């Protein structure tokens, strides 16, 4: 959520490239960021979306507007989906647990 932005407040929603095809998920396509006005449509402003390269994320750390029409957000960018970190082969092997972030580009915050 941007706060006190000169053009109004926006919610920032990041859609990861995960598609549920029961019972399996597929991982394809790019990551899309949606900027949704928080005024319930009273200003006439429309939601906007931008497509980024293919990546996953775990957490937002910060979202703000440094000037009119600009939104900056920090998020934890991951090369692979974080859930693969929690399989038994990794959990039962200390060396794999310790090296997993470095080997998979995990937990890298980017602006």
Characterization of the model:
It is a single chain. The chain is mainly β. It is 14% helix and 41% strand. It contains two helices and eight strands, in the order βββββββααβ. Strands 1-4-5 form a three-stranded antiparallel sheet, with no helix packed on it. A three-stranded antiparallel sheet has the order 6-7-8, with no helix packed on it. Strand 2 (18-21) and strand 3 form a beta hairpin. The chain is elongated. The mean pLDDT is 77.
Produce the secondary structure layout:
Layout (H helix, E strand, L loop, with lengths): L9 E6 L2 E4 L2 E4 L3 E7 L10 E5 L3 E9 L7 E7 L9 H4 L2 H11 L3 E3 L1
Antiparallel strand pairs: 1-4, 2-3, 4-5, 6-7, 7-8
What would you say about this model in short?
Helix content is 14%, strand content 41%.
Class by alpha and beta content:
mainly beta
User: What spatial form do the alpha-carbon principal axes imply?
Assistant: elongated
Rg (C-alpha, Å): 17 Å
Outline the low-pLDDT stretches.
none
Q: What topology, given as strand order, has the largest sheet?
A: 1-4-5
> In what range is the share of β-strand residues?
35-45%
Top keywords for this entry?
111 residues, mainly beta, three-stranded antiparallel β-sheet, 2 helices, elongated
């Amino acid at each position: 959520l941007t706060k006190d932005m000169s053009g109004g407040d926006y919610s920032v929603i990041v859609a990861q490239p995960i598609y549920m095809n029961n019972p399996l998920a597929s991982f394809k396509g790019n990551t899309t960021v949606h900027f949704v006005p928080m005024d319930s449509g009273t200003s006439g402003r429309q939601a906007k979306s931008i497509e980024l390269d293919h990546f996953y994320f775990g957490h937002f750390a910060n979202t703000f507007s440094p000037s009119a029409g600009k939104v900056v957000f920090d998020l934890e960018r991951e090369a692979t989906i974080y859930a693969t970190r929690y399989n038994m082969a990794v959990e039962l092997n200390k060396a794999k647990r310790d090296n997993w972030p470095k080997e998979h580009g995990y937990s890298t915050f980017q602006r």
